[in-house]
DNA sequence: TATGAATGAGTGTTCATTCAT
DNA sequence: GATGAATGAACACTCATTCAT
């Protein structure tokens, strides 16, 4: 009889392997084309499965993106966690966090773009595991600020969460051109600059703490006095 | 094929009026629903025109969004321009810019969302008039830094553009929840906090000491001299 | 955004069946309404599928038309191929081709219209499979001419491709009114007439190649002279 | 007071001039871009008028095309009319018509394309003035055939209208590639070839036999007589 | 479990034509 | 007569998701 060729190549793999394949493939495609330009069929093909299989492991396309992004956060945390404990000194600790994050962005600008432009703007972002991961990831800055304040190195009246926003906001704006594939950035210099300015903003100022215009006010006062004296002399 | 003849209600208006109507309507709809959920037909209806009329004045839906955003920037600049010149002192100037921007975001969070999540991520953003407007709009921070450095108030080794990224990055991260309609922010407090920390980061630091101490020292010196003069006179 | 979930009635059929259904339906609709008046949605409905299914098998509306036309050509070739080999004699062979083609036009005037007015005018027609099919289909006329010339039945100085253009050009002009649904044509008579005139134009003329009436005129002249001489002699 | 610049440049021209301008412009645009790609606004601009003005003189875009095509036919007739009367002999007369038409196509392939692919396929073509013009234009072939038959030069059993279809059908198919801008054609050779084959198809054939047999038979006859004479002379 | 064919909603854009000025 | 701003209908195509096999 005619030997019929098997129509399908059913490749039964352990689920973890399948999931890993799909996520790797999805990360590739999402990174290359962005979310909406990515096709499930493309992701499936690269992973060596068919569309339907993806839906066995992921709710939908969005969920797949979420999971890819979550994995990236986990990866970033695992990459920077080990060394962190050993770093001593406020400046060094801030610098470590900033440097690590910039390094991660440099490694995976495509993923960063996805998180910044696709996931974060989502109306439900805040009820997302990604949001939680991000909080955990960014908490270290707030911790450093708190500890620094406790140790008297930093001013106590600065909101740790504000510093967190400042650090990550600055990094994000600073790396835009790069994330858009429109230029590189100098990892070392950028990390140092950002650290310097943030650190400087946290250092305590003279007791009394009046902002500089108070000083200027006092200068004005003083000037008046001098003028008064000068007038007396001129008379 | 054959265009069907139908009754028409032609309502001839000056182009400026039409454009204004359409942009107002587009701003409303875009703000309410976001870009992709907005329908041209909806915008047209609210503006009291038909779809085709919109395409007389705007290339396409995207162009309409651009123009709305540009107008917003112009509006923001006009709103904050007048007062700026009168503000004296570095702290006050930074605070003015931060406060104005926060105020604008508070007034139009929808537009901010559009710019941040729709327009800025666009691959061609940097060749856009909006990009130019944004540069003009954000230049003031860099100018303040430069002038402050020239006057010796600020450290000279800080990149003005880094400060710009810091200011706007911080503001953006700080107001996310609000832009997402998930909470308000305290305009006064936020402006002050951001200004304080940025300002603090810019002040020169005495090697080993707080920067303002130097100022105080000089003040004291000056005071001594004045007192000396006064004494001479009084004697 | 989110694709809405709806109940579905999936009806899995072998691809050949689906394609056949769609092409049959498309042929109907295109034939009835012409290309631009035909709606994909209409074609889909008659084929018992949804629009999307059509796009699984056909690139776009134009491609669908192409494929329908190609199938028509294949059909025409299959219909007239078998008998052709058995036909003997140049006149009969030309007549067979002409007759078959007229018969095909009579059967499917709508398709002919589509090919003539939609597909052939297309700027890319010549790089089309339809063009190839047409060449194969019309080659027989050229072959007949070539063979006839080789056998000495036809003049050797006639371009086979010109005859092809003549045959199909004549048929096309002759059947216009019919293709336009403005009258019928007599299949037998038309085929005979066209065959006669074409055949007549192919028969060899006296060597020397002067046009035939000139030859006849000179023959008359010569005859007269001969007669004159004969008369003189006979007298 | 400020001198206001005149908003409009009303250029009142005699209607004939306006119409001529518009038709010239329309002929240009239609010829360059084809019917459906041509924009009324483009035609208007090139003619130095606005859209509305065109509609004062032409019913609609289609009508404009019609009128342009009609003018072309009139032009063709005027171009070939004068010489025609002077041409003697059936072959020459057919050749004159064929040559003139090929020449016209060569001059204005764009217009030919428009007539062939846009106007003629129209369902209402036959109730069109263009159709009438075409009939008048192509009548000469039928007339030649009729006259030739009356003078005994052509067979009497050939339908003049069939010959007309043959001539114009052949010309059209023969010049396709050229009309499509995909190659040139040799005016002289093409005209001669087409004339030859058509002419040959019209010549009378001996009843029951191939036409050249008649010539040969008469030649044999004549030869016999000549031989007879020769014999007489030789005797 | 895996397959992959079938589903079907949803909208920006064009441009001939009109008619108030 | 000329202007040109306003009209508005009309439709191909995509692709995430499902579910019968």
TrEMBL record, chains A, B, C, D:
Annotated region of DNA binding: 39-58
HTH tetR-type domain segment(s): 16-76
Tagged with keyword Transport: no
Record flagged with keyword Transcription regulation: yes
Signal peptide stretch: none
GO MF: DNA-binding transcription factor activity; transcription cis-regulatory region binding
Any single Pfam family the record assigns to this protein: TetR_N
UniProt keywords, alphabetically: DNA-binding, Transcription, Transcription regulation
Superkingdom classification of source: Bacteria
InterPro entries, sorted: Homeodomain-like_sf (IPR009057), HTH-type_TetR-like_transc_reg (IPR050109), HTH_TetR (IPR001647), Tet_transcr_reg_TetR-rel_C_sf (IPR036271), Tscrpt_reg_YsiA_C (IPR013570)
Designated name of the protein: Transcriptional regulator, TetR family
């Amino acid at each position: 009889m005619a030997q019929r060729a098997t129509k399908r190549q059913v490749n039964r793999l352990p689920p973890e392997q399948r999931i890993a394949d799909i996520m790797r493939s999805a990360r590739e495609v999402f990174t290359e084309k962005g979310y909406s330009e990515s096709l499930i069929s493309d992701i499936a093909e690269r992973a060596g499965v068919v569309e339907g299989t993806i839906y066995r492991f992921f709710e939908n396309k969005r969920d797949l993106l979420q999971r890819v992004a979550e994995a990236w956060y986990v990866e970033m945390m695992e990459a920077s966690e080990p060394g962190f404990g050993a770093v001593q000194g406020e400046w060094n600790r801030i610098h470590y966090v900033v440097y690590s994050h910039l390094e991660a962005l440099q490694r995976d600008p495509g993923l960063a773009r996805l998180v910044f432009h696709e996931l974060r703007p989502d109306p439900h972002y805040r009820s997302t595991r990604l949001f939680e991961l991000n909080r955990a990831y960014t908490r270290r800055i707030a911790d450093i600020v708190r500890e620094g304040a406790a140790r008297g190195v930093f001013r106590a009246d600065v909101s740790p969460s504000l510093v967190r926003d400042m650090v990550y906001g600055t990094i994000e704006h600073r790396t835009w051109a790069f994330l858009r594939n429109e230029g590189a950035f100098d990892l070392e210099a950028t990390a140092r600059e950002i650290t310097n300015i943030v650190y400087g903003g946290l250092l305590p100022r003279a007791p009394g703490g009046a902002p500089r215009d108070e000083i200027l006010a006092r200068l004005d006062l003083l000037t008046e006095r001098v003028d008064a004296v000068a007038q007396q002399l001129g008379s």
